[in-house]
Design a protein that fits this description.
Chain lengths: 294, 336
């Protein structure tokens, strides 16, 4: 059963949009729920259908899948420029609260995509109801990510004015001086920037009992990025894998293949969900397993 | 019938309905802030290309919310294969899918959505709004939509996307634009222009030196040459056909960003060539240009201007707008 709905973030008293994919078959997975913590701006926009397709796959395998929009994003209440790191974290907690109240879910997995990985990880590090954490191509250094996302602004300037009037350092200065600056499918406000710019996944100490999956999605290489391979080193249940897929969260021109079914990524993640539920805590000695091993 | 609350309050409500193929399509209906309007007018937002019902920069969400404040019903929905709707869009090259959209891939779902919306909200008139691919869908679906009053077409694409044809010839309008790119980069010498140079070098790297040189030469010829083709082989004839068959009492309104390439194509390939040379057709549409804007209406500051243009094109629904000024803060959200 599919159910689009609005639910309340009681902590901040606003409404969020969510889409609940409830299981179609009865099996052992029925008590498990996967909450999608997606990215923002263009990345959210272009990856939406991929996430919907994975949610449907989870649903078909007996899981409950829940997609929701953060405050100021998607169909949820509010404007993006009023969002801060704490609104995103509060929204993830509200989604957990809602899903556990609305369904008979007993186990929660947070699935973070790109910047959503940061929100999912920060919540999972504190929230004991989260038993599993899967991160797809996580953003590690958020300040660098925001700086990089200003490339979209440069592209826009070039397309509009045939030159670059403000480079990225100048744009950052504008943001700090309380000017709203267009980024990658969203605006960046001063408060938004300040709340995010110092955040790094490397600084998060993950709870040791969280079963984590880190997926490096890359078309070019089979090797995992060094930064990602060093993430959550203290968590010996962490499994790392590389998946040979293109970045489904970007759209560059019409000369590319439209993809919304990432079979390798979907199957490997499902495999991990099954594996980690049936075979708790049996990650390899160094905690690093490649996708091919699963 | 969707229930309205007897207070000044805009409501957003998730909805679902089946299309003629039996697939469940999902969307959000915005129910206006007031009751007792003289006329019930609904506005349907059509997905841009392969995006989904929020559009880039949440443009559709913002517009629909403001329109609901002004007394209009609005529906943002996803056709089959997009958003959360059932069905799928076959995986293939993007420009091939865009061409399918330009030929009417989503017409049936649009008509089914319009019928659902009219019935659910007891609408007397509807208006279709679309951006880029959504604009062509709006135009192509219009002959099949009941109670249609007008079309609002943002960043309308008059040409098909075609990688192969584009390589054969550079469009004259595009040529001028390309030449400006080159000259702009070469004549600016400030710190930021280093980025411009990097962009140019990246473009040359992506295209290859040979193709870049060919492109530059064609840009020169396209700009200064007199030997330009009368008719662009990429021109979307389906659009022309629909445009010609449009009922006279339906108002057609094109809105472009000043710097959108599709504005150039519209003016050169449609207005200058097709309308003047071939059809001698009476101009029966409105065109609006938003200064400093791009294809996707990116800038927050111009959203108000876009909204003003749209409101100017809509019929009066006979409500007292100043009662509604504070309505956004008390918007309600209903479960399905």
């Amino acid at each position: 059963m599919n159910k689009p709905l609005f639910f309340k973030n009681k902590e901040n008293n606003y409404n969020l949009f969510g889409f609940l994919f409830q299981p179609e078959i009865k099996n052992i997975n029925n008590q498990k729920g996967v909450i999608f913590c997606d990215s923002i701006g263009s990345e959210k926009y272009y990856s939406h259908r991929v996430l919907v397709n994975f949610a449907r796959l989870l649903q078909a395998r007996g899981y409950c899948a829940f997609l929701f929009d953060y405050y100021g994003n998607g169909d949820s209440e509010g404007d993006f420029e009023n969002t801060r790191l704490d609104t995103y974290l509060s929204d993830v907690r509200a989604a957990i609260e809602f899903l556990m109240e609305e369904t008979k879910i007993e186990e929660i997995c947070l699935l973070g995509v790109r910047l959503g990985s940061v929100f999912a990880s920060l919540v999972a590090a504190e929230e004991k109801r989260v038993e599993r954490l899967a991160l797809w191509s996580p953003i590690i250094d958020v300040g660098k990510y925001l700086y990089d996302s200003l490339r979209a602004n440069l592209n826009m300037q070039f397309s509009l004015y045939k030159t670059i009037k403000f480079n990225r350092d100048q744009l950052i200065e504008q943001i700090k001086n309380n000017v709203l600056v267009e980024g990658e499918g969203h605006v960046i406000s001063r408060d938004f920037y300040h709340s995010f710019s110092q955040i790094s996944l490397k600084k998060i100490k993950m709870r040791p009992d969280v079963r984590a999956l880190l997926v490096d999605i890359s078309k070019n290489t089979g090797a995992m990025s060094k930064e990602l391979s060093m993430l959550f080193e203290d968590n010996n249940q962490c499994i790392r894998m590389t998946v040979n897929e293109g970045p489904f969260w970007v759209l560059k021109g019409t000369n590319q293949i439209y993809t919304n079914q990432l079979k390798a990524l979907f199957e490997k993640t499902l495999c991990w969900l099954e594996d980690s539920s049936n075979d708790q805590g049996k990650a390899s000695d160094n905690g690093h397993r490649k996708a091919s091993e699963l | 019938m969707i229930k309205e609350k007897p207070v000044i309050m805009a409501t957003e409500k998730p909805v679902s309905f089946k299309n003629r193929a039996g697939q469940e399509l999902y969307g959000i209906v915005h129910i206006p802030c007031a009751h007792g309007m003289e006329k019930r007018v609904g506005i349907i937002f059509l997905d841009p290309g392969l995006g989904y019902r929020i559009a880039h920069y949440r443009l559709y969400v913002k517009l629909a919310r403001k329109l609901a404040q002004k007394g209009f019903y609005a529906l943002r929905f996803d056709p089959a294969g997009l958003g959360e709707s059932e069905g799928s869009v076959e995986e293939s090259m993007l420009f091939d899918i865009f061409n399918l959209i330009n030929k009417g891939l989503f017409i049936n779902d649009t008509v089914d959505a319009a019928n659902f919306f009219i019935h659910e909200c007891e609408l007397e008139e509807i208006i279709l709004i679309g951006l880029c691919g959504g604009a062509i869908t709006a135009l192509l679906a219009s002959p099949h939509c009941q109670k249609l009053r007008s079309l609002i077409l943002l960043s309308f694409p008059v040409l098909f996307s075609s990688l192969y044809i584009a390589r054969e010839s550079v469009n004259p309008a595009d040529a001028q634009d390309t030449l400006k790119d080159y000259l702009g980069t070469l004549t600016n010498f400030n710190k930021a222009s280093l980025y411009s140079l990097k962009f140019l070098l990246k473009k040359i790297k992506d295209r290859g030196l040979h193709e870049s040189a060919v492109r530059f030469t064609k840009a020169l010829m396209g700009t200064f040459g007199k030997d330009q083709p009368d008719f662009n082989p990429n021109f979307n004839m389906t659009f022309l056909d629909a445009f010609e068959r449009m009922e006279k009492d339906i108002s057609i309104n094109f809105i472009f960003g000043e710097h959108d390439k599709w504005k150039l194509y519209f003016e050169v390939e449609f207005e200058q060539k097709v309308l003047k040379k071939y059809k001698e057709k009476e101009k029966n549409y409105n065109k609006f240009i938003i200064k400093g804007e791009s294809h996707l209406f990116t800038f927050q500051k111009s959203h108000d201007e876009l909204m003003d243009i749209i409101l100017g094109l809509l019929p009066s629904v006979g409500i007292i707008s100043d009662r509604l000024n504070h309505a956004e803060n008390i918007r309600s959200y209903s479960p399905l």
